[in-house]
Amino acid sequence: MKMNQKSRRSVVCMGLLAVFFAIAALAPSVLGAADKLRVSNCYIGGAILPLWMAKDAGFYGREGLDVEQIWIQGNPATAALIAGEIDLLYCIPHNTISAIAGGADLVFVASIYNCMQYRIVAAPGIDKIEQLRGKVVGVARLHDVAHFYLRLALKRFGMSDRDVQMAAVGGQNDRVLALKNGRVAATIVNPANALVLETWGFKTILDIDSLNFPVIGNALATRRALLKERRSVVVRFVRALAASMRKIQDDPDLSKKVLARNLRLQDKAIIEENYRFNSGKNLESFPTLPLDGLRYAIDSLASTVPSAKNLKPEGLVDLTILATRRRRRRDR
Fold first, then answer.
1. CB-based contacts of 260: which residues, under 8 Å, 6+ apart?
2. Domains in the chain, start-ordered, CATH in brackets?
């Protein structure tokens, strides 16, 4: 019995659907499931943009990665990396360096934003950093990175942290409120929060980046054992990060949307400022690992972590991940 044209179409459609579902069912085993990675950022701020963009723009998926991004604030993030609770840590390097000085088998594989994105903002009537003598200055925690940057700035102007009263008041938002409420006479914040404070009548008295200190910014660290076992996965993660960095430069509109959503921002001027200091000249064209900046970070810890004096920058990094990515980039 001959089938009419409509029946033949139905059979063909059913056959195509059967093939589609068969391929879908077999895809994970044939093509391989995405490699899972647990990545932590140790704070919330605009400099997390490359991680957010890599996910939003699909660069992780393109590299066959299933990335779970986890916010673990401060020191516990390094402890989680050591314990194997996360696979990669994206953070300022100081806590990781301290852990390595204490015997942890961790290693840096890349870094971005290798500049000091901090400004010192003061109450009305304070126009220069020398006027901070005897005043209360707010930092997040004593001996943290903000405290370190502040000490560097004071030293450049012939002062030390003994010339001011350091107060541990918490994160960026806490420091903004502390200055607004008069708890401190000055504090150290990122450019976006400096802009907020300026609209309230406070004054930026120093852009620390203008002092041109060697800096290693947000460094990507992992366990040496994981790097040995899952090297290709780490290479693909850095590749996705590099693609994200290019996207940030090429697509300001999407970048601002990603920043606004993740930082819960609505003010267009603040969103614009966040994008400005997380793109352009502040964002490298490719991940790096500046050894001079790492050496500076090690030296900054010497007074509070004596064992850090024995560390050499070259011993804390694995440059082969970046070298592999650069070779592939040249081969294209």
1. 266, 271
2. 35-115+215-331 (3.40.190.10), 119-211 (3.40.190.10)
